[in-house]
Amino acid sequence: MRRIVVRCCLVTLALAFFAPAAMGAPQGDVKCTVLASGTYTTESEQRVNAPGTPTGMSRIIRPDTVRFTSASHTVPARLGVRFGLRFVVTGLPASTTVNFRKIVAFPPMRKPDGTVTKGYEITLSYKTNAEGAVTNGIEGYGFDYPYEIVPGEWRFELWYGDRKLTEQAFDVVAQ
After folding, report:
1. How far apart are CA 169 and CA 174, in angstroms?
2. Which of 17, 15, 167 lies closest to 103 in space, CA to CA?
3. What is d(CA 64, CA 115) in angstroms, rounded to the nearest whole number?
């Protein structure tokens, strides 16, 4: 009986140690460095369906077209404003696609259908280079409709597995 208990304990320890790696969970020293944050403009973006976001849409933007116009974390509450962050993540598996979770929290927003939302969570996919890095990540939000413009704290979080890599708060202010 004692041998069975010892074997079960060893199997449990082995699973606890090796299973996260097999399932693609964060391993090693994954680090996120924010290179820029604030308001930005972009020359190229493509709108795609994104269920769960306030508008049901999201943007795919080419990172090389993003120009940060202000490093302030105070964001003017007006249509057309885009704000967010540019980042690098290292310590990831090399030459593959990795998934992050982006969590955005904001003050209560009443959508056109009458429902109220205080944030959303979406899955992001990025390709890593041969060194296991995402070298030009861009994530943000843009005010396209009047109902989105909610003054107060807006918080972005970037997660890899169960590990929060970074968070950035912005103060959206009425002008």
Report:
1. 16
2. 167
3. 36
**What does the alpha-carbon distance between residue 155 and residue 107 come to, in Å, rounded to a whole number?**
10
Residue with the two structure tokens 């930005």: 40
Torsion angle of alpha carbons 141, 97, 133, 154, nearest 10°?
A: 20
Q: Which domains does the chain have, with CATH numbers?
A: 26-173 (2.60.40.2390)
Q: What is the pTM of this model?
A: 0.80
4-22 tens-digit pLDDT? 444 443 333 333 333 334 3
pLDDT value for 45 = 77
| Cβ(48)–Cβ(58) below 8 Å | yes
DSSP state at residue 162: T
